[in-house]
Amino acid sequence: MGTGSIAYNTIMRIQNTRHLYLLIVMPVLLLPSAIITQIALAQTNYGTFLTYQSHTYGFKIQYPSNWEKLEFAQGIEEEHRNIAVNFLSPMGEGTSDTFREYLIIEVGNLTSHDESPDQYAVTQINLRKALPNFNLVESTQTSVSGGNPAHKIIYTYSNPIVGMTKVMDILTIKSDKLYVLSYNADAVKYSRYLPIIQKVIDSFQIIK
Question: What's the distance, CA 47 to chain centroid?
């Protein structure tokens, strides 16, 4: 098997595993909410938001109260990053809506203390080039709450489970920790949820 085939199989396994977590979620992977979650109400233009706080991974974020929150036990990994929490959009009306847009947050340890979000973004883009019909839409510098430097990647690809998928990844680094906020959507519905997702991402804070 050639190098290209190995890269393709690896990246597709990662992407499909992520989607299968959402389609078939096993309760044993979920932590009791009381362990690492603080609930607070905040009124915004999008309605009531809740505050999720993870003492384990050192961040907090607001999310819409009508979105489903899934917390993962430590040890559930993707590309050597721990999957911390996932926020899923409300169930669609009817049976035709088979995919729920989501924002997943992953946290990992850096292998190099000199690595920047921009450098890490280049690595991630190169990995994702193996995805079917991969198209890089945007790759730009940005920041998260508190002015912490970050990098934004937006791309599309064909997923055999979902179809044409559009993804926005926000990569940021604090001390020796990498934080990845990844919005995944049916490409057709990407713009519909983007204002809410941006509000959620803007609320993200690293607290340790």
Answer: 22
pTM: 0.78
The number of folded domains in the chain is 1
User: Measured between alpha carbons, how far is 194 from 19 in angstroms, rounded to an integer?
Assistant: 19
CA-nearest of 51, 59, 58, 48 to 33 is 51
Q: Give residue 179's domain range.
A: 3-206
pLDDT in tens, 2-58: 545 544 454 555 555 555 444 434 333 344 443 334 434 444 445 699 999 998 899
CATH of the domain at 7: 3.40.1000.10
Of the candidates 149, 137, 144, 143, the one whose C-alpha atom is nearest the C-alpha of residue 190 is 137
- Sheet of 47-54, strand order: 41-44, 47-54, 59-64, 205-206
CA dihedral 121, 127, 132, 137 (to 10 degrees): 10
